[in-house]
Write a structure and sequence with these properties.
53% helix; 5-stranded antiparallel β-sheet; 5-stranded mixed β-sheet
Length: 454
Amino acid sequence: MLADRLRFADIRRTSAFRLTALLGATFAVGIVLLLGTIYLLTATELTSRSDRILADIAARVLATPAPALPDRVRLESARDEPGLNYFGLIGSDGERIAGLLTAPPSLKYDRPVDVEDAGEGIGAIRLLARRTPNGETLLVGRDISQIRDLRLRMLEILVWSGLAIVLGVGLTAVGLSIGPLRRVRDLQAASRAIAAGDLGARMPIAGRHDELDLFADTVNAMVEDVARTIAQVKGVTDAIAHDLRTPLTRVRAGLHRIALDAILPADHRERLGAAVDDLDTVLERFAALLRISELEAGHRHAGFAPVDLGAIAARVGELYEPLAEESGVALAIDCMPLPIHGDEKLLFEAISNLVDNAIKFGRAGGHVIVSATQGGAGYLDVRDDGPGIPADEREAVLRRFHRGSNSASAPGSGLGLSVVSAILGLHGLRLDLFDARPGLIARIRPMDPPPRAR
């Protein structure tokens, strides 16, 4: 049975999760691209604005006559607000004439560059160098710490927004997947009940009129039609078996009494005996059909209690030991305790059918071994060394009236294994047939658990 607690591995495989994740990823990529574009455009615009301001200031200062240029640089340095614009005038010999700025090692003229440390406690600036007409160098700098802070804030917003989007998409995908996954598990539970023979079970409909409701409604209609057809067929079969059993029993009793009449010739009594045997076969088949119908109706759980399948098999072995000796077959019982919950009489009948078949179809001088093992989920084997059943017929022999090609000449109605299968299905067990090389292994084991959702 599937666990009630949903696992993330199950959730992430759902279509809702994958579709939400795909759409969310597309949305997240779009948002990241938008924010990245805004960041790049804003950073470029701020830098361009600083470069234009530096160029305007440098042009205004360079318009001053050369003799008055040092004083103009000092005046501009003193007048501007601290931390915004910085100036420097460097002579042709590299010595500073005025201002706070000094020429960096790799100086580029007429091209603003970022200088990480301009000295004098200034810090990072955007620096523009221009040559004066008399060969001196004018340096104009602008503090870029605020621009860098703004860039950093925008980058943080970009990163955190991306993480928030990813988290939001993930939570949304999980939230949208839990409901459909729970509904799918409910549908699985209903389908397992239907597959187990409960044709009265129906797939739940949530009333949302979505694809799951459409699917459930379609399956329910199909199951209803199948149940109605099966009920009609079983009803006809059961009615025929029930109605004919009484008159056939009377005919059989009358023929038997006539056959006992000593006046009849021997050949007539022989023919009457053969007719009685044929009627016994027909009555046996009718009884088996009614038995299967009773078991498949599934109304025998009231008699269920804890029982030991190994102990039941041992009792069956004791019962069939004389028949095995008469048939020249060595019957061996090796059963460990195998506790289950079930109807002791029904399980005794099922194992008896298997042992009877093993003795009937086993070879003279052969062996029949009944063993119960606790390994894994536990199972019970009935093994013989007879002709066995071909692999392509092992499923068919579990159906009504089908007899294997190796047993066509043996007496029987072809209903024994159908009765066994019906009894085991009522107990949540199944019958598997394997090649014993030589012979056949009939294994009683629990039904396979349903596969998990993918």
